[in-house]
Amino acid sequence: MLSKILICLVLGYAFGCFSTGYVVGKANNIDIRNYGSGNAGTTNALRTLGWKAGLITFLGDAFKAVIPILLVRFFIYPNDNLAELLPLYTGLGVVLGHNFPVWLHFKGGKGIAATGGVMLAFDWRLAIAALLVFIIVVAITRYVSLGSLLISLMFPIWVIILYPGNLHMFIVSLIFTVSAFYKHHGNIKRLLNGTENKIGQKIKIEGQNS
Length: 210
Description:
This protein has 210 residues and is mainly α. It has one domain. 70% of the residues lie in helices and 0% in strands. The chain has ten helices and no strands. The chain has helices at 2-16, 20-27, 42-49, 51-76, 85-99, 112-122, 124-141, 144-162, 167-183, 185-193. The longest helix has 26 residues, at 51-76. It is globular.
């Protein structure tokens, strides 16, 4: 079992290291990590380069999780007795690669779009529920970080409901939540202080016309 888990983690990490936000930023002649929140994720791409860049970044980061999970589930370990657990480890590898990409000196994103892709590949019902919660929370509060944190909490709750008694799966799913809260520690402080940036606030890039 350990060898399979390690293979899934490494495979996921390799996919996760592809930083869509960084590539999109470079296509626009900037290193997106030098602006806004300083990470290479969807929200920073949205604030820094606009909705098209944000959408491309979101889709790229989500589907880089979907692809390796489907590979594990249907090609590498089809009909395995760990059929539900191995995709979770693969997704965890993706999030780790996204958050800490080795080729970018471990400075990546915060893992929410990648986690959304993991949810989609793991259970499409969870992905739809998370998307609805995210949309409602952001529409009401305009805080993307709050919506992101809440959907990360849904992962272990979903596993508890659908896989009661499976402690291993619960622990792995809980790591996604812990990772999200760790990467959002600055956002949490600003939320508590009432100084968090709201969606729609634009970041000015040097050299752009005002």
